Amino acid sequence: MQAEPRMRRRQSRVRRALLAAAVVLAALVLAGLSAMPAMVTGPMIDMHVNFSRTYQAEDFGIVAERIDLTTPDGLRLVAYEVRQPNPKAVIIFLSGIQNPSVTAFFGHARWLGGHGYASLLVEMRAHGESEGDMICLGHREYLDVRAAVDHIRSSGAYDGVPIVVYGLSMGGATAINAAGEIPEIAGVISMSAFSSWPDVFADNMRLQGLPSWLAEAEKPFVAAYTGFKFGLASAGITPVRQIEKLGDRPALLMHSTGDTQVPFASFERLVARAPDHVETWVVEGDRHLIIEDYERPESDPGYAATILGFLEQHWGGE
Predict the structure, then answer these.
(1) Which of 38, 29, 32 is nearest to 226 (CA)?
(2) Which SS3 state, helix, strand or coil, does residue 167 take?
(3) How far is the C-alpha of 93 from the C-alpha of 106, rounded, in Å?
(4) What digits encode the pLDDT tens for the residues 28-59?
């Protein structure tokens, strides 16, 4: 008779111990999920990028005027303007999260200048000689594009000329975000853009072999972290949302199937949310930069034909 109460007490203690262990485990998992975004993303964005290599316009046989832009939130940005007489369009170039410098696009400015397109190369906040000490993953960089658009529209040199934003990686994400927020933008060329930072964070967790359920569980914590870092007002400014605001404006999305920096899943999400008229170009392999030689983009026939064909179709005139 006495054994049964002892058995019940023992079972009760075991249940309490298991419950306590489960609570501790859950707390540890939540703590890990909460800490991971800051541990991984913080070192990537709490910085100012000083490039080991930059380019000069004269190296490409062109003339560029260095200008200063001021963003709506008060940062001074450095940009380089390559003018053309009676341009078909003005192309704003944006580069990636840490490399290369936007001056690598002088090769594009030279090439496209030969086809009648003017260029404005913008070194985004926290990069090179532009001000800022935090990279904002596209959430605030659309303000950098706003400053560029304001300069173009106020210069008097481009009355009625269409503005196209052309970005690589984070610059590609920023180009999409900017188009969603700035109606004066006529079109977008986006290369290797992420659909959102939580998306690419989770995609890279999977790429590292972590289970999909853990990657999905991490996404709300990444979103909370970016909301804290960049402010709730800009939290919803992500490419996968902003691309829906394109309306009937032309856009070209490019990606490589084996991209190990921004996995192809981001491209698929963007295409799924984009208007039906948005054009795409997919290349095989791990080619985050899409082409190897940014100094001579016309050396890649497929790339050159895709870019120039897109521009000429929509802004080339007769």
Answers:
(1) 38
(2) strand
(3) 9
(4) 455 555 667 788 888 889 999 999 999 999 99
